[in-house]
Specification:
The protein is an alpha/beta fold and 313 residues long. Helix content is 42%, strand content 20%. The strands form 3 sheets. It has a 6-stranded parallel beta sheet with strand order 3-2-4-5-6-13, sandwiched between helices. α2 links the parallel β2 and β3. The N terminus is likely disordered.
């Protein structure tokens, strides 16, 4: 489906934009700046602006993914200074709705990336760009079954309960296992996207489940912590491990054989395509309501291939 920019809306944008508006500024606001994944979004946003001078961008995010109030403040500040558009990766599907509505009421278009907002935000933003997290979770589950079989225990190391990406990614992973196998789910355990917390949780899971056959770390800091715990453990023999995202730590864990694979999102593409979507909208072009930024399962067999190298960071 297409969202068509109407002439009327363009007048609304102009009429409602504050007189102090920063001409041409696109505010890119992510879940945290303390993650290579989100810094790769920043690089993509920068790439989208190459070769043009009409738009600039700012990049910001709170100190952690759980600092939701701080992210809300960043959105509200962007609205108050009258940016031309906002690219937002919301840390909470409900809590960010009022801030996005505020942007809408001020005639500022918003593009959502990575994690969905709740239905209460419908109509307040122009497009949603993301990996199809449900499909990504199912892809990992399918490969897990291929390698461990259909019986035994699989631990799920998750991050922030209720985050839009977590609901699809982890929910569809566990649903797929339940539908296609007799594998028993241990967890999920929530690291709050803290690597140290994930390391400690994984260490405890390994100690308590000597019969574990598989384990899944569902985002970057969680997967890194999980991988480090596996590397340090004496109880990791035969455990099939998959992570999510693709920073250098996770790449090394794949190369060293600690992880059997990592499902890598197009984080660069989220930044690049998100900023381009805002520019297209402001320039009167139609944009898709949903844009799939893709996922690649990176394994020891394909990690050096172009398909994998194009998404790793």
């Amino acid at each position: 489906m297409k969202i068509v920019l109407k002439v009327l809306f363009s007048f609304v944008v102009i009429a409602l934009a504050p007189l102090t508006a920063v001409a041409g500024e696109i505010a890119v606001i992510v879940k945290t700046t303390n993650s290579n994944f989100w810094m790769n979004v920043d690089r993509g946003a920068n790439a989208a602006l190459e070769g043009q001078s009409e738009f600039t961008y700012t990049f910001s995010g709170p100190e952690s993914e759980t600092a939701i109030a701080n992210q809300i403040n960043l959105v509200e500040n962007a609205v108050n200074r009258g940016v031309s558009g906002i690219v937002l990766a919301p840390s909470d599907p409900e809590a960010l709705v009022p801030a996005v509505r505020q942007a809408y009421e001020n005639g500022i278009p918003v593009v959502i990336i990575d994690s969905e907002l709740s239905e209460a935000a419908d109509g307040y933003y122009q497009s949603f760009l993301s990996t199809n997290n449900c499909a990504a979770g199912e892809l990992v589950a399918e490969n897990m079954i291929e390698q461990v079989g259909t019986s035994g225990k699989v631990a799920v190391m998750s991050y922030v309960a209720g985050a839009g990406s977590e609901i699809g990614r982890v929910g569809c992973f566990t649903d797929y296992l339940a539908e296609h196998s007799d594998l028993e789910i241990v967890g999920p355990f929530y690291s709050q996207s803290q690597m140290g917390t994930a390391l400690n949780q994984t260490t405890d899971v390994l100690s308590a489940n000597s019969d574990l056959v598989g384990i899944f770390g569902a985002n970057e800091p969680t997967a890194v912590g999980m991988g480090r715990a596996l590397a340090q453990s004496d109880n990791n023999d035969g455990i099939v491990a998959f992570g999510f995202d693709g920073n250098e730590d996770l790449q090394d864990l794949v190369r060293y054989g600690v992880l059997n694979g990592i499902a890598v999102q197009g984080s660069f593409q989220m930044g690049e395509m998100g900023v381009r979507a805002i520019m297209d909208f402001l320039q009167g072009n139609a944009i898709d309501e949903f844009i799939d930024t893709g996922v690649v399962l990176v394994t020891p067999d394909n990690i050096d291939e172009p398909e994998a190298q194009n998404v790793l960071y």
